[in-house]
Amino acid sequence: YEPVANVIKMGIHSMVRYVQNKMDGSDEDASSATDTEVEGPRGALSPRMYRVVSLILHVINVILLLFVTRSFVDDAIIGPCVSMYSDPKLQKRVSVLITAGLVLGTCLYAVHPLNVQVVAWPSCLPYELSAIFCLLSFWAYVLDKRKAGTMMFK
To answer: What is the DSSP letter of 76?
Structure first.
């Protein structure tokens, strides 16, 4: 975990430096700056840029969470719950209510995640990145099980 996180953090650090240099109008290449050049006011990295990156990663996590829960709930909950009712209108209502619950839960996570520090502190970027990869792997698992037709609740 640690070596991969360090490589990803270095990539984000270079990206933030590049964007900040472009915003400042500097022609300095992001790869040419060393850590000793960061001390001065001209080369200092802005925490604002890291917060922007963290916020973008949080938005990606929110979108992934909605897709992952929707993919899983389609097969695990909506299918069995809807098949219990013979009335098509009632089936549609149950499906809409479950989907509304998913959207409400995702919106709650978007506004106030369990650990607010992950979004607010620039030092917590690896946690956002690990959440993205965790959600992507779970989503790939659910899609693979759906493709194979072997979801556990079918």
So the answer is: I
Give the separation between CA 23 and CA 25, rounded to whole angstroms.
Answer: 5
Structure-token match 């472009």, residue found: 22
CA angle 81, 83, 88 (to 5 degrees): 105
| Angstrom distance (rounded) from CA 36 to CA 51 | 22
Looking up tokens 């006011």 gives 41
Averages of pLDDT over runs of 10 residues in the chain (154 residues) are 70 78 64 44 65 86 91 73 77 83 90 79 80 90 79 54
CB 31 within 8 A of CB 14: yes
Burial-class residue 145 by CB neighbours within 10 Å (0-12, 13-18, 19+).
Answer: middle
DSSP H or E segment with residue 91: helix 88-111
What global pTM score does this model have? Answer: 0.69
The token duo for 57 is: 């990663």
| Six token digits for residue 23 | 């915003």
Q: Distance between CA 24 and CA 102 in Å, rounded?
A: 42
